[in-house]
Design a protein that fits this description.
With 255 residues, the chain is α/β, with parallel strands linked by helices. It has a single domain, classed as Rossmann fold, CATH 3.40.50.300. 42% of the residues lie in helices and 14% in strands. It contains twelve helices and seven strands. The chain has a seven-stranded mixed sheet, sandwiched between helices. It is globular and about 50 Å long. The protein starts with a strand and ends with a helix. Bound molecules: adenosine-5'-triphosphate and magnesium ion. Adenosine-5'-triphosphate binds next to helix 1 and helix 10.
Length: 255
Amino acid sequence: MGRIYSLANQKGGVGKTTTAVNLGAYLAHMGQRVLLVDLDPQANATSSLGVDKNALSRSVYDVLIGSETPASLTLVTTCLGLDLLPASPALAGAEVELLNVIARETRLRHALQQVSGRYDYILIDTPPSLGMLTVNALTASDGVFIPIQCEYLPLEGLAQLLHTIELIRQRLNPDLMVRGLILTMYDRRTNLARQVVQEIHDHFPTTVFQSVIPRNVKLSEAPSYGEPILTYAPDSPGGLAYEALCQEILSSERI
Ligand SMILES: Nc1ncnc2c1ncn2[C@@H]1O[C@H](COP(=O)(O)OP(=O)(O)OP(=O)(O)O)[C@@H](O)[C@H]1O
Ligand SMILES: [Mg+2]
């Protein structure tokens, strides 16, 4: 059975999608079988991997409402070993439609059980909210990676996210763990970035990954070419940082 991890933070633009796509690519490159599930109606992970979201007739939305299986909609990507269960704009409706269905919080968990034996890792990219889609992602997951943008003091929003994770652990998924905090968009020239890193380490010393992702323009360019940083600019500071993060994650899994 593969491990299932969500990338979650209800704050927008913190690097959830960038981290999901690039971790997925590096994990696959390091020999892992990976499925990336795009659970965000913005479908940024889907387009970052070169798939036109508007051309998709079906997506993870159809899996959530139970009309398709994940295996029937999974796409191979240009990265060997990395598969994609894409999102489409229809997913925006799921947030409301799921409110009235039975077992609404566990739809994704049950769907992913059908394919988890085929993968070493399933990564779920989530939207910037704590609504029904993110609840489905967290209920399906063994753990959650929380990207933290080093440009805002995050503690208040983080407390709310950790509270949600605790509620899901109590009511829906006792196995859910915080797998780690990932510091993103770090610019060492700014005092604020250093302050954020200090604050996070003071409050969460053991759950922060040592590999810090710098702010790097190559990381923001790669999605428009439909490529992960691994193929677009592997030697860039952003590429090297995601490679190091991936190694750190893999070695911490083996403990
Ligand atoms: N380390 C980085 N350096 C430079 N740009 C970055 C970096 N990480 C992400 N970006 C850019 O910042 C923007 C937000 O990143 P991303 O889409 O990964 O965040 P997100 O948390 O998924 O956002 P949303 O909440 O809207 O889904 C994107 O344009 C992305 O290309
Ligand atoms: Mg995103």
